[in-house]
Design goal:
It is a single chain. This protein has 153 residues and is of the alpha+beta class. It has one domain: Hotdog Thioesterase (Thiol Ester Dehydrase, Chain A), CATH 3.10.129. The chain is built from 3 helices and 6 strands, in the order ββααββββα.
């Protein structure tokens, strides 16, 4: 039996076009009734998007450090379908739907087993360090197109 590497953070991964990121609902994620606070779904989805970019080799920190640009959420549309609760194991499923010169549209669903809890579409714009939209690096656009084709990481 191989023991897991307990010192390495969890990483999600691709299954076809879908990036999957698993997490558990902790006490800090909930209100006093043990129901996930609505804004925390946005945090769950942010972690999943960041992990998806990391999985395909998009180094956001290096781009920021080189003053190349940064991603920022320009728009988020979310429907809350059912509540998650303390102790639930969730899966954030992310799919790239559209790539433009300066942005990417990502469809994200938070799932509890086969039950869909949220449905969201998030537009991440690529911005200069002073906040103006700018073209994404060409290699990143190519990566997003590859993901849309089902090639994943």
């Amino acid at each position: 039996m191989t023991l897991p590497d307990l010192d390495t953070p969890y990483r999600g991964g691709f299954l076809g076009r879908e990036h999957r990121f698993a997490l558990t609902v902790y006490f800090e994620d909930t209100d006093t009734a043990g129901i996930v606070y609505y804004a925390n779904y946005l945090k769950f989805m942010e972690r999943a998007r960041s992990d998806m970019l990391r999985a395909v080799g998009v180094d956001q920190k290096a781009a920021m450090d080189a003053a190349q640009g940064v991603y920022a959420v320009a728009e988020a549309n979310i429907r809350y379908l059912r509540p998650a609760k303390l102790g639930d194991d969730l899966l954030v499923v992310s799919t790239v739907e559209q790539v433009r010169a300066a942005s990417v549209l990502i469809h994200q669903r938070v799932m509890r087993g086969t039950e869909q809890l949220t449905d969201a579409r998030v537009t991440a714009a690529f911005l200069t360090m002073d906040g103006r939209p700018t073209r994404q690096p060409r290699e990143w656009v190519d990566v997003f197109k590859r993901i849309m084709g089902g090639e994943g990481a």
